[in-house]
Prior knowledge:
Layout: H1 2-13, H2 24-41, H3 48-71, H4 85-101
Amino acid sequence: MLMAVTYLLVQDYFPQLPGFAAGKWIAVAVIAVLFLSSGFTAKKGKDEKSQAIWMLGSTFDLLALLVMLPLLGGKSSMGISLSNPIIWLLLAITAVQIHIKMPKKKKGAGS
């Protein structure tokens, strides 16, 4: 899933690269398939900590892409960048979700 999102971001920032001229309908199809398949691949017994670690890692990966792609000379044709307030809202929501999913350390009875 992360590779598909990375591909879509690179395509958005550098549409002139050969092999990245797939078109917007392919991007919509990939997102739709990812969305539909996420419900089938979710493991019901998966613990909260591993979900939080996955969310944290994927968030840092996407942030790194949003920093590196403009530095490499790309410009988003769809407005996906760190200057977009919606991106910051999504990052805040993700941070809250990670905070909720991380297990809290229990204090000792003597403390």
